[in-house]
Automatic annotation (TrEMBL):
UniProt keyword list: Membrane, Transmembrane, Transmembrane helix
PANTHER family noted in UniProt: PUMMELIG, ISOFORM A, RE40534P-RELATED
Lineage: Bacteria, Bacillati, Bacillota, Erysipelotrichia, Erysipelotrichales
Keyword Transmembrane helix included in the entry's annotation: yes
Protein name: Serine aminopeptidase S33 domain-containing protein
Transmembrane portions of the chain: 74-95
InterPro entries per UniProt: AB_hydrolase_fold (IPR029058), UPF0227/Esterase_YqiA (IPR008886)
Naturally occurring in which organism (per UniProt): Faecalitalea cylindroides ATCC 27803
Keyword match Transmembrane: yes
Pfam families, per database record: UPF0227
Top-level taxon in the UniProt lineage: Bacteria
Alphabetized SUPFAM superfamilies for the sequence: alpha/beta-Hydrolases
Length: 220
């Protein structure tokens, strides 16, 4: 008699662009039921190394996680820039489902970013501030431009969460791509949710409950 070991459900998280990297998912990781899921966090790049700016290397690190857990049931969970990367991975690898939080399919307001960057530079002489470098920002933009249409070429269920008060990625970003996503899908607006609702201490209970439902296939 043959016995087959049941596959474990593994959540591979793909972080966004910024200095928090994998720690964006720390509150969610504490919330997730470890008896049901294994949650994987990792850094695609080092925000404190301005020369770690090869976007292909970032993508490769994410792909390595797919290969590492290929024998398990993989659920991809991408935030912001990570939503675009997770969509790309789901278009070329077999995964159970794709969950996106505030995915960055549409460009940010670059004018606001520039103004914010000028303030940071002026403060560098006064205090130690470490943010992604200009070349890393260019790598981010390349990722969005090159992989944003991958979402149209996936065959797994897709659940998207986007806050109505997102000040970084406009909610229209998710609305515009949603209608052209093939297969099973669901777009849920988080009323009052801002971009960093995964770890802002305000909307976490709401978004985590919905992510639980998405993981259990209750939303589609």
């Amino acid at each position: 008699m043959l016995f087959f070991k049941k596959k474990q459900k593994v959540i591979i998280t793909i972080h966004g662009f910024g200095k928090n990297v994998q720690h964006e998912f720390d509150p969610l990781a504490k919330h997730i039921d470890k008896k049901k899921y294994q949650i994987i966090q990792f850094d695609m790049y080092d925000p404190y190394d301005p020369h770690d700016d090869n976007y292909e290397t970032w993508i490769k690190k994410a792909e390595e996680k797919i290969h590492e857990y290929k024998d398990q049931e993989i659920i991809l969970l991408g935030f912001s820039m990570g939503g675009v990367i997770a969509s790309y991975l789901a278009s070329i690898y077999h995964v159970r489902s794709l969950i996106l939080v505030a995915p960055a399919f549409q460009y940010l307001d670059l004018a606001n970013i520039t103004n914010h960057g000028i303030k940071i530079v002026k403060n560098l002489a006064k205090k130690s501030v470490s943010v992604p470098s200009a070349s890393q920002t260019k790598a981010f933009q390349t990722i969005i431009n090159q992989y944003k249409e991958s979402i149209y070429h996936i065959d797994c269920p897709v659940t998207i969460f986007h806050g109505t008060k997102d000040e970084v990625i406009p909610v229209e970003s998710s609305k515009n791509i949603y209608s052209n996503i093939p297969g099973k899908k669901r777009l849920i607006y988080i009323e009052g949710g801002k971009h960093r609702m995964l770890y802002d201490g305000i909307m976490e209970e709401c978004i985590f409950t919905l992510i639980d439902d998405a993981l259990e296939d209750k939303l589609i």
